[in-house]
Amino acid sequence: MRRTTAVLMLCWLAAGVALAEDDSARVTSITPARVGDLVVARLRTEGLPGEKLLQSMRSGLVSSVDLDLALLDDRQKVVDGNRVSLQLGFDLWEEIFSVRSDGTERSFHSLDDMQDYLAELWAVPVIPVNRLAPEARYRLRIMLQVHPVAPAEQDRVEDVIVGDQRPRREGLDQQEASVSLGRLIRFFYKGGGSSPGGQETYSSWFTRKELHDETH
What we know:
Layout: H1 2-19, E1 26-35, E2 38-46, H2 51-57, E3 63-73, E4 78-91, E5 96-101, E6 104-108, H3 111-119, E7 120-128, E8 138-147, H4 151-162, H5 173-191, E9 199-202, E10 212-213
Parallel strand pairs: 1-10
Antiparallel strand pairs: 1-2, 2-7, 3-4, 3-8, 4-5, 5-6, 8-9
């Protein structure tokens, strides 16, 4: 009974995510800057969190926005980079939105406040400044990917549905059910829910000397 209810809940959530309008989340501009010894990116975005992420969050699940940041040289070769994941949640009891990243968390009492925060991300870390040659030209490439259910959350969802007890010698029924549920979760939330390939945006060219000191 517990598994049947859980499966029905998953199918309801999955259907809601699948039927939601396509997300149009994108990075609209990138401003390279410097904070101390780090090259950072100031990002302006549109479409975050988007309908798919909101529907998932309001169902009690954690969504994520992943940012792949790469520093390119004048031959378009990747010199170095960083990956930042923003975990988006909604407290169903307190009705508070939250964004977690790198061990820090920000809380928002309204959707508008969270949207304003995500629309302008300040000082997203990329690489140490000393990785830049003094006279060389560079630019930043940002790839944005959204996940209605965060990859780290998918295992927890599967555990809730399948249960803590894993099959031992009771036969193959429970194992087959576990595999089937796992595939169902990944079909709706991993393969079908994330942006395939992501969306790329590039900054203007800059040199180490041209990096503005970010003081915000």
